[in-house]
Design a protein that fits this description.
single chain, alpha/beta, five-stranded parallel β-sheet, 7 helices
Length: 173
């Protein structure tokens, strides 16, 4: 049995814990879980590594990072009264539906004093999070390090990420 780690928020001694978060989706509602969990872990003194792959590249791509969208098409968790999957698709097909739902979600996030994605990345980077981009995804999307958020340390292979995060708790989002 191992001793429990109890964090002290004013103690800068590392806990020895490591968290690896794989960010694979770039919708507005899928960007925040990884960023929020990374921030929480950093606050606990946990070493944090974020690996952006496939559509998660939208979160760190300088061209898209401040333009992430939210859509309720296909989102079965919208809990709209009397709705079914067919209603979601019909509403989502209406002109301006994605713009309106994105605006609504951004307002809800802002009302909670949660920063927008680019500012959140700045916060994480400044707090010591390590950010990595997937080599295969970069090659597929024809992106270079200069195309990505400046806090991304390198474009690395999945194997390199596994080695860097040896022993880490892993979250796939």
């Amino acid at each position: 049995m191992t001793d429990m780690i109890v964090p002290s928020f004013d103690d800068e001694t590392p806990t020895g814990r490591k968290l690896a978060i794989i960010c694979s989706k770039g919708n507005l509602d899928m960007a925040y879980p990884g960023l929020i969990l990374a921030n929480a872990a950093l606050g606990e003194g946990i070493e944090v590594h974020l690996f952006f792959t496939f559509w998660g590249f939208d979160i760190i791509n300088k061209e898209t990072m401040d333009k992430l969208k939210f859509t309720f098409v296909g989102n079965t968790s919208m809990h709209m009264p009397g709705s079914s999957m067919g209603i979601h698709h019909m509403l989502g097909a209406l002109p301006g539906a994605t713009t309106a739902s994105t605006k609504m979600m951004k307002k809800m996030i802002a009302d909670l004093d949660v920063p927008e994605v680019p500012e959140f990345l700045d916060l994480l980077h400044g707090s010591g999070a390590k950010m990595w981009a997937c080599r295969m995804s970069a090659d597929m999307m024809k992106l270079e390090l200069d195309d990505l958020y400046d806090g991304v340390e390198a474009i690395i292979s999945a194997t390199d990420f596994i080695e860097l995060t040896d022993g880490a708790q892993l979250l796939f989002i």
